[in-house]
Specification:
CATH architecture of chain A: Alpha-Beta Barrel
Oligomer: homodimer
Enzyme class (chains A, B): oxidoreductase
Structural class of chain A: alpha/beta
Protein name (chains A, B): LLM class flavin-dependent oxidoreductase
CATH class of chain A: Alpha Beta
Shape of chain A: globular
Bound molecules: flavin mononucleotide
Keywords (chains A, B): Flavoprotein, FMN, Monooxygenase, Oxidoreductase
Strand order of the largest sheet of chain A: 1-2-3-4-7-8-9-11
Distance between the termini of chain A: 36 Å
EC number (chains A, B): 1.-.-.-
Family (chains A, B): Belongs to the NtaA/SnaA/DszA monooxygenase family.
């Protein structure tokens, strides 16, 4: 077997799993989604499994105003722990695994973000990453003094400038700035401190950051957002792209598009890892795997299922749920519903089948089967150049993650696709992405 | 000995201590101020000593633009770890001690603050507190798009509204809202979720918060800010007031003023603990204690010492440092310099003596002496009704804190002034302050 680049694996550990009905699973502990101990256990399992990183998606508020009546109280996905506090807590009880938290450029200030992630990187000994998003819900807007979400154009213009400012602040100190010379009383060399003095369209930020350069030179930048503007941010910055893709062709063309954009931006495409999300139902036999899937699906109440279509397609509760998905009548709704309709038409889905597909993994690609079947799929995507790794979004936590570790991981390792041991201590080392240069040309990692 | 209310003790553990020259101390590790392990050790020592809380002051940026040339690189007090990430990390490696982080109402959004502190309270099992400040430096303003700091009036108007919004968001969920009824598929009772829908002068925030009610009903509110407007915020909200006081009379009149204001606001004055800051130099003999003090003072370079006066009095580097403190010539400077000048005149201090007094404890009250002498002072303040406890700001960390624990704490305990063991598990229980009611009248603490 030829040596090959091992894949990267992330554990996206939101709630008690991504399936809409996870909390109703007979073994699920419904309150675990806001219980720190649940996440400690998951983090330590993922570290024992040598995963690259823990990943926390985020929305800043309860994004469910646009739900049909009765649906909100049926979901466990409205309450969470806040990602940065949670990952900081987990930093203290883990040693190797990366810690990636989502933060929105739309509802934050760059100085806070630069500071908190640099601090997390320091606390964790070089394991922090920032998943850059621009948010999408009106619910978030209304928690921050706005009536509606910012438009796509200005939102991404703000995002691009936001990331520039954060990177600039992270360059405030050369790695060798702190000389600590007790005899002369010189704590740092002022030539190695850099004042950003950013004056842009959206932000004016002076700096310097009040935190020394972080252990991995700079926290890892992750990006999630599929539009051209999103890919633009990724091309200029991202070391990991978190994507959604349902079929190999789509995944491959997205992969090529992002890698080309990275190259066009003057960066090495291998320094940007593309990791689609996957939701797995694994069992020794395909029948058992499918039973796991169906068992959970049967626990999705109709109102909750319809809530996954409500924002895009309006209220479908008057329709026969086992009949075809209707053409939306509201023209304003029509364009955003296009993707969903296409999916329904391609596979000839009923309303119930459509919402079930989405509710099972929050829209992520679903894989159901034996360890070999699931790993065959993963390997096929990697071999085809459609993925550098995967962000695992288990339907139920911890059980579906434990299944992946117990069954899929040995198979991945047998095929030489995943590490047996960590070889480094930082998230950059796990991913195999280098430390970016400082814009000021100074040292970026502490000397031994 | 009559039973008395034990005092509250906090450890303010910034940098490697509050003394300007702490990092030059022969035993100091200069890099410890941004080393997580330093804070783990301190947190665990403070917990073993049964302290009520760890306390982290904060400024959002390097507040030293107004320093004379050469001073900035002489201080270890420009770089930190960010308080919320640091305390979240420490939550995972401690079990009982309270965790109080400072956050400014001037440069934050209430939804983020409500969310992060509720999350910290959850992660820590009910140990979080928020020290409400409004910030004071131009350096912070310039990191957030402003040329100068907000004026006092609007700054405090914003603060008052900010705190109202945060408290409202913390009431989003009754403690018994989450019924977790798997059979019916009801995760929570919608009648026990409350939508704030705040529309005020400074903020429009819809809610609800996406984090369940936190274990201590609501994080503890601490306030620091001595003006009438600051006292107004304290009266309406604070369960702890962190104050600065240098003499017993001043401390007592401040104490009475705050307690009266709390009563006028309709709250029980015993539910608001007043904790002045103290910086202690303790040794078996007074001579040794004074030597510790002088040893550190001798390590303060002149430029750094003068930087403590620079913002208020301008550049005094042309003057004889062992001569009297001159009358400031710039009328704009004069009013803010008044307090400093009064101190210098009262005690007939030279320029060097004045800056030394401030540099030794960042302006906090300094106590130098034997364990008995120091504890006599603390007891006198408590007996006189000038303090309910103290926030310890050790000059050098960990050594000066270790000294306090080894020498002052046994003496405090001998006099019945401080607990031998924790009797509760939350910060509220340590402080003896009750859980506030919800504005909606719902349950505020989870049933057993
Ligand atoms: C895989 C993936 C994950 C995402 N995760 C989040 C998230 O955790 N929080 C969030 O606010 N938005 C998230 N987004 C949304 C993006 O931030 C973005 O706001 C939205 O997709 C619209 O941008 P786009 O048009 O570039 O896709 C995610 C998007 C993708 C594709
Ligand atoms: C004891 C004490 C501690 C303070 N700690 C902080 C702090 O950590 N961060 C901060 O920005 N301001 C701090 N402040 C400043 C106040 O937040 C406030 O901005 C400033 O004192 C001006 O308000 P005032 O006029 O009400 O005192 C503190 C003030 C006092 C009295």
């Amino acid at each position: 077997m030829p040596t090959r680049q091992p894949i990267s694996l992330g554990l996206s550990m939101r709630y008690i799993g991504y399936h809409a009905a996870s909390w109703r699973h007979p073994q699920a502990q419904p309150g675990a989604g806001s219980d720190f101990r649940h996440f400690v256990r998951l983090a330590q399992s993922a570290e024992a499994a040598k995963f690259d990183m823990l990943f926390l998606a985020d929305g800043i508020g309860i994004r469910a105003k646009d739900a049909p009546p009765g649906a909100l109280q049926q979901t466990a996905q409205s309450t969470v722990l806040e990602p940065l506090t949670l990952l900081s807590g987990l930093a203290a009880v883990t040693e190797r695994i990366g810690l990636v938290a989502t933060a929105s450029t739309t509802y934050n200030e760059p100085f806070h973000i630069a500071r908190k992630y640099a601090s997390l990187d320091s606390i964790s000994g070089g394991r922090a990453g920032w998943n850059i998003v621009t948010s999408w819900s009106e619910a978030e807007a209304r928690n921050f003094g706005r009536d509606k979400h910012m438009d796509h154009g200005p939102r991404y213009a703000r995002a691009a400038e936001f990331v520039e400012v954060v990177k600039g602040l992270w360059d405030s100190w050369d790695a060798d700035a702190f000389v600590h010379d007790k005899a002369s009383g010189t704590f740092f060399d002022p030539a190695k401190m850099h004042v950003l003095d950013h004056q842009g369209e959206h932000f004016r930020v002076r700096g310097p950051l009040d935190i020394p350069r972080s252990p991995q030179g700079r926290p890892v930048l992750v990006q999630a957002g599929a539009s051209d503007a999103g890919i633009g941010i990724a091309a200029a910055n991202a070391e990991v792209v978190y994507s959604v893709a349902h079929d190999l062709n789509g995944a491959k063309s997205y992969y090529d598009k992002v890698k080309n954009a990275v190259a066009t931006a003057g960066r090495n495409p291998s320094g940007c890892k593309i990791m689609p999300g996957i939701t797995t139902f694994i069992a020794p036999t395909e029948t058992e795997a499918r039973e796991k899937y169906e068992q959970l699906n049967a626990l999705v109440p109709e109102a909750l299922g319809l809530s996954y279509l409500y924002g895009q397609m309006g209220d479908l509760s008057g329709h026969d749920l086992d009949g075809p998905v209707p053409e939306p009548t509201d023209p304003a709704v029509r364009s955003i519903a296009k993707g969903l309709l296409a999916l329904a038409q391609r596979d000839n889905l009923s309303i119930r089948q459509l919402y079930t597909t989405i509710a099972a993994g929050f829209g992520t690609r679903i894989l159901i089967g034996t360890p070999r079947q699931v790993v065959d799929e993963l390997e096929a995507w990697v071999e085809a150049g459609a993925a550098d790794g995967f962000n695992l979004c288990p339907p139920v936590l911890p059980s579906a993650f434990d299944d992946f570790v117990a069954m899929a991981l040995p198979e991945l390792r047998r095929r030489g696709l995943f590490r047996e041991e960590y070889s480094g201590t930082t998230l950059r080392e796990h991913l195999g992405v280098t430390v970016p240069n400082s814009r000021y040309g100074g040292a970026v990692v502490p000397r031994e």
